[in-house]
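Open question from group meeting: does this chain pack into something compact, or does most of it stay loose? Before anyone orders reagents, we agreed to write out a predicted structure and look at it together. Recording both the input and the output here so the notebook holds the full record.
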Amino acid sequence: MVTVLPFKYIARLFVITLLLVGCTTERTADEQWIHSQFGSYASAFSPNGKYVLVGDTGLPAKLWDIETNKVLYSWQSKPAVAGTAKDVAYAGTTTAVGFSGDSKVAATVEQDTIVLWEIATGEPMIRLSFPVKIKSLALSQHGDYLLLALYDRTAVYFDVIENRVLKIFEHDGSAVNSPINQLINAVAISPSGKYGLTGGDDQTARLWDLETGKQLRSWKHKNSVNIVSFFPRGGFILTGAGNGQTHFWNMKTGEERYTLRMSPWPKDKPLPDYPVFQTTTSAVDYSPDYKYMVTGHPSRVICLWAVATGDKQDCWQVARRQALRPGVVLQSVSFSQDGRAIYSESGNGIGQKWLLK
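Structure tokens returned:
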């Protein structure tokens, strides 16, 4: 039996296809480096744009100097015995990484263990072990406080100096009609240190007062929230859902400023509820003059946006490391210190530099 689609339906699909075709083109990086031989689970750029920390799979994490592309330090949670086979045995996979806001402290996570490192010397500052595995983390301005998403369905605000949990945050399952708390996937600490953001499987992003532990706002999405970020100048936040939309919100009013649209669908019309209009955002950064932001996506896409309006300036695809391995997740992105280039790190172990034109 042959089904004939109505002309109206065919026309609608044709228009959608036209809007999506040419959305992104593969671009050759201006510079490219191999930062991980076997790929990585996590990477992060320092806020000052000088370093990138890459968590090698099965090898020590490496801190790279971006300008010289040299490894400054190799870090792992347990000290290796130099000159013995135990060097390899002690190297665990780094599952999460991060930097303090002042770029003086770095953090590496291996399952349930966090080590804070002094970037000036490369020496460990403190080693913290938790009773459950750590999913993601955020550091305060000076690295003296941590916000951790744990696999026990909580997030904890932790005082590093006093070595104690200050607050515990939870995402109850009411938003998704579940009787149990939901897993928290992403966390962020505001530049002022006053607020925290969490995003979870309950499809909400939540804003917290870190001093009192009070929930200030909650934003509902259509899927599990996988990324949360504070705009550096304050007043706005970015949240994104897996296979959903990425939103820019006003913190004070709770109202949406805009939704990021990779396709040229008219801004005065709501996005159709088609999978082709939905994409996961896996990384974000803001330009030094705060006029632009860059996002990375698991579809090997990088996009540049105007912060004031949310208008897309450009999108392009990064090249694959191997043609037969199509998946390339953009784990972290960063503007150069002068704002004239973008750096990216992918899960395939490749670091790249893109000049803005």
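Observations to bring back to the group:
The first strand starts at residue 25 and ends at 26.
The first helix runs from residue 7 to 20.
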